[in-house]
């Protein structure tokens, strides 16, 4: 029985056994995705339109007779028995008879749709179906399909996954990803980054360089890779911007006048990343105190004097001195001594305080 002419008969059905092409180009290499071909009127609906390696695809022929009793799928441009994947008998008693070309991953369903699971490169080829068409007879369904060489993208990684950078410095992050990723985007704290004079992307977007680092450049960075079938995002990479100490002060500010016997707590406050180390001096002599606070309870005459807080950032290697004078109501106002470092500050964020000659 021949096909009936009719408006439903797409021009693509030029030959009786025109095949369905699943991009031959993917056979060679995954490195160069093939641009999808211009869509043409298709008598087979392919879902998804861009099948992915490892994914599934459904090939659903259009215009299959409602009352069809069986249909065939072949992996070739012909209907020879050696290329037969399966013969399908629809409900109410659906039966699938597998043919020589069945790989164990093909199933047929309503409307003679062919479902292929776990797509591999060897699924590349021409597929042909022979199914009854409305108004009687049998027809072939054919199409030209390009499968871009796409895979479900694995999670990319960002290296280094942790960075400590000086304010005004430079850092570089790299997005390590499958070569089949078509797009690479960067995010900071979940928001996408726009390149600028200071935020420089390599031509393939895989390398992000930040120049003249500011404090607001700190945060968690991620890269997001994409291709037509998937997107995936890296774990966060933490960038810490070291700066300071800045705005160092002692709380309460001086001069402090206290009643003899009342308690006194001095706290050194600094804007600094990382947290600075502290040394306290009194009248130019090390107190051997290294916390951010100093407490006297009660305050005695011995505690009068000029207190110096040395705040040291071991990464920026900066030390800032601030001081206050404290005296009791009955004591004489102290004369501030010439400040000199009473503390041997280390770059390991740990103080070794030495007393200086008084
Ligand atoms: C792919 O097909 C298999 C078998 O039919 C099924 O188990 C799986 O859920 C499908 N996967 C997707 C992503 O649809
Ligand atoms: C599919 O068929 C076309 C036309 O017959 C042929 O040129 C092409 O090589 C075939 N593709 C594959 C992967 O066999
Ligand atoms: C299916 O129905 C059409 C009419 O719609 C009829 O011509 C054809 O013979 C039927 N085929 C079968 C297998 O029942
Ligand atoms: C990202 O890739 C990982 C494996 O590397 C996978 O488990 C995960 O499902 C992927 N996420 C998405 C959204 O595809
Ligand atoms: C960074 O990567 C190393 C191994 O490469 C891992 O041991 C470490 O936990 C990671 N750190 C973070 C913050 O993810
Ligand atoms: C960075 O430069 C600014 C302006 O020149 C300066 O105030 C700041 O202290 C510098 N930061 C560091 C860590 O050197
Ligand atoms: C590179 O990044 C820019 C800015 O985020 C984006 O507009 C562009 O599409 C990206 N290009 C690629 C190939 O990922
Ligand atoms: C600080 O410690 C040194 C020894 O490490 C000691 O000689 C000095 O007297 C101490 N100074 C004070 C104020 O306690
Ligand atoms: C830190 O600064 C001091 C003096 O400012 C200098 O002698 C020392 O070499 C610096 N250390 C580092 C690690 O840069
Ligand atoms: C610090 O110096 C002042 C005078 O400038 C003095 O009154 C005070 O007793 C001194 N404190 C100590 C602990 O030496």
From TrEMBL:
Signal peptide limits: 1-36
UniProt keyword list: Disulfide bond, Glycoprotein, Immunoglobulin domain, Signal
Family assignment from sequence similarity: Belongs to the immunoglobulin superfamily. CEA family.
This protein's record includes keyword Cytoplasm: no
SMART domains assigned to the protein according to its UniProt record, in alphabetical order: IG (SM00409), IGc2 (SM00408)
Entry-linked InterPro entries: Ig-like_dom (IPR007110), Ig-like_dom_sf (IPR036179), Ig-like_fold (IPR013783), Ig_sub (IPR003599), Ig_sub2 (IPR003598), IgSF_CEA-related (IPR052598)
Chain intervals with Basic and acidic residues compositional bias: 349-358
Keyword Glycoprotein: yes
Ranges of residues in domain Ig-like: 154-240, 245-325
Location of the region described as Disordered in the Swiss-Prot/TrEMBL record: 332-358
Pfam families: Ig_3
Identification of the protein by name: Ig-like domain-containing protein
CDD domains: Ig
